[in-house]
Amino acid sequence: MVLYLLKRTTHTNKPMKLKLIASILCCLACKGLSAQQKDWVHYVNTLQGTNSKHELTRGNTYPTTALPFGMHTWTPQTGRNGDGWKYQYFKDKIRGFQQAHQCSSWTRDYAVFSLMPMVDELVVDENQRETRFSHKDEVAKPNYYKVKFENEITTEISPSERGAHLRFSYPKGKRSYLILDGYTRLSGVQIYPKENKITGWVNNGEGFKRGWKSYFVIQFDQPIKSYGTWENKRNTVNKDSLTAEGLGKGAFVQFESGTKVQIKTASSYISLKQAELNLKRELGSDKTLEDTKANAAAVWNKSLGKVEVEGGSKADMATFYSCFFRASLFSRKFYEINEAGKPYYFSPYDGKVHDGYMFTDTGFWDTFRAQFPLNTLVQPEMHGRYMQAMLDAYEQCGWLPSWSFPSEAGSMIGNHAISLLADAWVKGIRTFDPKKALDAYYHEAMNKGPWGPANGRDGVTEYNQLGYVPYPKYREATAKTLEYAYDDYCAYQLAKMIDDKHYIEVFEKPMYNYKNVYDPATRFMRGKNAEGKWSPNFDPTEWGGPFTEGNAWHWQWSVFQDTKGLINLMGGYNNFTAKLDSVFTEPNKVNVGSYGGMIHEMTEMVMANMGQYAHGNQPIQHMVYLYNYANQPWKAQFHAREVMHKLYDATENGYPGDEDQGQTSSWYVLSALGFYSVTPGTGEYVLGSPMFKKTTINLENGKKFVIEAPANDSDHVYIKSASFNGKNFTRNFINHSDILKGGVLKLEMNVKPSLNRGLLEEDKPFSLSK
């Protein structure tokens, strides 16, 4: 374009020509700069948090290649089939490239199969076919993964929502094979040599109805030279075989030596016909992998561009957008689009096909705290669909989801679906029947389900009779009491918003049950037996017992709904803030307690070297914001920034513990904006200290909410003064409804704390006792 315009100016006068050239170059430079600013994808490192193992997790992530909340993702595989640690950064061999869904290394994956390119000899055994690579030959972005093996094979992957576009480039002159591994359990394959295609299905994972299958289709753009099937239990090979079904069945194909083959694949939980439709709709028009790569980049830039941050270091930008990427993967879409363009899904709950939307792969114990509140802000349409999907799940299996993977597992503790529902309603997301939501929660709160401690209520009879769950009759009883009380508040809040007097009366008393496990003598939450006696030999550093994955220092603060009530129990503001301070100044020693040995959460707390503050797990993640309730908001500002700087980065060691389906990432994203959702269900975000000089939230309603902090840097972490849309702003919180209206929150940042700002009662965030 520049050359063309230069030629057109040849016969004009020289000054005019130079002026025009300068103008053109300036415009192009500005255009290039603008394009660069909008390329959020290049900041993301999908290897963030992958240097994990059983003893010490740095995120427990894998280099996910996917679209936002995609039904399927793809990843390189360094671990054995069935190993929860799919990809570990410290390993130097890859044995396959998987279709994956795993949201935690502590749970098994489902609907998995893998592809692995080989040269020279056909080697199917996963332990013998693994091939060496180096991270310097690896590219890991949301829209594109690439790795070159030491044997010169290059693999590239770009995603669609329900499939992927892959390319394998084999070295010249080398026999070129591709192995399809059926993973664990049952699978089936069918090879179509004349059509250069393989179809099949896999049946792996937990909790599915009998006969469930994930159907896939794989289309090659190069002719198949030879083929066969194999099985991965004894690694026997059947050459020239076109079809196989059974345990661990797979396939292999051979191409012309040294070829470059493009592969399009898609899967469906409904039928092979739907898998073919998914492939055609999502990848059919992409002639090359570059097309898919560019399309995926556009989708990700639009999604990541919902929050635009400016005025931070390159490292901070990388950390922010890498975390925002992780916060945009779960919950996973579990629905497909039929021939008429309508959503429908195979239900993991009742094994039938239903119209509408369904989502899965998350544990609410982790994600109710920040991941779902972040979605209410940047993904409200999807969040609204999710709320109705939860009630559909209740209809299909008789229980609200608590830990879906993809069906209900009942893992962890609490009944936090009601937190999501109440938080959505208070924020104006009203896509569901609130009365039906309360009925479903009442069933949850008054019964114990068959699957796990969070499926219904563990200790429900005693909780309703005593006002707490007794320990040691029930493990983790005090933690359960605290979380049941918060959930009961959420039900009360939803009932209050719709003026349902029955449910207001049912839940207005138990939402204060946290008081029943507080010991005024030690000023800690403690285990209490059915006779009302405290557990003996109390040590606040002892993990487990009446607590979940933590100790008394961590669980002291789980009174989300009534921080002022907790302050009163502890003897006032000074005692409360002194105890908050002590979390950071106490020695970081560990009493392993009922765990009997060091678990990774303990190791991560010790390594963080922040006293008893254990950010690597969820129970204490909101704690730093509680200073806002007790006349010391500047300490929340200091500690929020300290945690962001010290415990997060965009590298393979980027997290202080398990990433947990977007929760630990969402804590960072919200905190980097300058606020956090201490109490989902109130519609409030409690202020901290923003990471960047300017942040723009591009809301779905078309408005923009801007946080300006021009003096912000690593030293200027304290809010000296604030204004909202030009008016003085002294509150330590901001309402979701105010954010939705758009506007500018301007913060004057300082190197010294402002000790007299935000101390009035009306400046404090919500508490029941307030």
From TrEMBL:
Cited Gene3D superfamilies: 2.70.98.10, alpha-1,2-mannosidase, alpha-1,2-mannosidases domains, GH92 mannosidase domain
InterPro entries named in the record: 6-hairpin_glycosidase_sf, GH-type_carb-bd, GH92_a_mannosidase_put, GH92_N, Glyco_hydro_92, PNGase
Domain Glycosyl hydrolase family 92 N-terminal: 43-268
A GO cellular component entry from the record: cytosol
Listed cofactors: Ca(2+)
Keyword Signal assigned: yes
Keyword Signal annotated: yes
NCBIfam families per UniProt: aman2_put (TIGR01180)
Name this protein carries in UniProt: Glycoside hydrolase family 92 protein
